[in-house]
């Protein structure tokens, strides 16, 4: 997703996406231990870092990201392709834009939001995404939120001349455009998710990442409609 925060500053969140080869062994083990469910979604699927791990735990998997991320040509598991083309032959893995995900009526048994919230520079977008995921889960179903709260590399990066403080992190200007890297303390992550309508169930910390399991309400709640606007330079979502 991309976010325009100033007149001439467009943040490209795809710059922060990592490939499957750089996945977390802790998270892979956690996912592998989950009981199988019928349907799941991976919101902000990026470069499919955890797609295969999640797909082994569910009959159907929805990969959700921006039109930019789903349609751009990139290296995925050694192939130059798009996410849409990569999954189009699969019978149980499907790619959706955020707008498509919000529009269809399907409800899911489990959700994942891995290293997504901390790279969003807009508080309103973070909240809109959390609210949307809550409405797409069946009542009382879980969602795993993963976010960095500490990173030793950030200290080094912040000293670079092309980095400037911004919100809960910093902006980096490079040949690939602007990137945003943020940190969300565990208590702030719990508060954020609960303000979005989830009930926090448990949280564990491992090597600078917080792993928060939260559940959707036992009964459907508002909002159920969202105003989603996406262009090549900006993504916005708000409950309507």
Beta-strand proportion: 35-45%
User: What topology, given as strand order, has the largest sheet?
Assistant: 7-4-3-8-9-14-13
Tell me the number of strands: 16
Based on secondary structure, the structural category is alpha/beta
Quaternary organisation of the protein chains:
single chain
Discrete helix count? 8
Number of domains: 1
Q: Could you please say which CATH topology applies here? A: Rossmann fold
The H/E string reads EEHEHEHEEHEHEHEHEEEHEEEE
Model regions low in confidence, pLDDT < 50 over at least 5 residues: none
Give an overview in words.
This protein is α/β, with parallel strands linked by helices and 240 residues long. It contains 8 helices and 16 strands. The chain has a 7-stranded mixed β-sheet with strand order 7-4-3-8-9-14-13. Helix 6 links the parallel strand 8 and strand 9. The two termini are 21 Å apart.
Keyword list:
240 residues; alpha/beta; Rossmann fold; seven-stranded mixed beta sheet; three-stranded antiparallel beta sheet; 25% helix; globular
Summarize it.
This protein has helices at residues 25-32, 51-55, 67-71, 83-87, 98-103, 123-136, 152-158, 186-195, and strands at 2-6, 9-12, 37-43, 58-65, 74-76, 79-81, 93-97, 110-114, 142-148, 163-166, 169-174, 177-182, 199-206, 209-215, 226-230, 235-239.
List the helices and strands and how they pair.
Layout: E1 2-6, E2 9-12, H1 25-32, E3 37-43, H2 51-55, E4 58-65, H3 67-71, E5 74-76, E6 79-81, H4 83-87, E7 93-97, H5 98-103, E8 110-114, H6 123-136, E9 142-148, H7 152-158, E10 163-166, E11 169-174, E12 177-182, H8 186-195, E13 199-206, E14 209-215, E15 226-230, E16 235-239
Parallel strand pairs: 3-4, 3-8, 4-7, 8-9
Antiparallel strand pairs: 1-2, 5-6, 9-14, 10-11, 11-12, 13-14, 15-16
């Amino acid at each position: 997703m991309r976010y325009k925060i100033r007149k001439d500053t467009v943040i490209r969140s795809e710059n922060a996406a990592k490939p499957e080869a750089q996945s977390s062994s802790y998270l892979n083990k956690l996912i592998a231990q989950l009981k199988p469910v019928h349907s799941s979604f991976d919101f902000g699927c990026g470069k499919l870092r955890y797609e295969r791990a999640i797909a082994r735990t569910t009959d159907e998997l929805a990969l959700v990201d921006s039109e930019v991320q789903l349609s751009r040509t990139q290296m995925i598991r050694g192939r130059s392709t798009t996410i849409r083309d990569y999954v189009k032959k699969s019978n149980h893995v499907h790619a959706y834009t955020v707008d498509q995900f919000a529009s269809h009526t399907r409800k899911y048994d489990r959700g994942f939001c891995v290293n997504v919230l901390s790279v969003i520079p807009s508080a309103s977008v973070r909240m809109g995404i959390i609210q949307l995921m809550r409405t797409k889960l069946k009542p009382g179903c879980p969602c795993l939120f993963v976010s960095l709260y500490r990173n030793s590399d950030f200290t080094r990066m912040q000293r670079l001349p092309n980095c400037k403080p911004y919100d809960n992190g910093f902006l980096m200007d490079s040949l690939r455009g602007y990137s945003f890297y943020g940190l969300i303390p565990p208590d702030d992550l719990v508060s954020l998710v609960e303000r979005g309508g989830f009930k926090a169930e448990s949280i564990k910390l491992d090597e600078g990442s917080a792993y928060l399991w939260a559940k959707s309400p036992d009964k459907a709640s508002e909002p159920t409609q969202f105003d989603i606007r996406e262009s090549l330079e900006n993504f916005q979502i708000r409950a309507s």
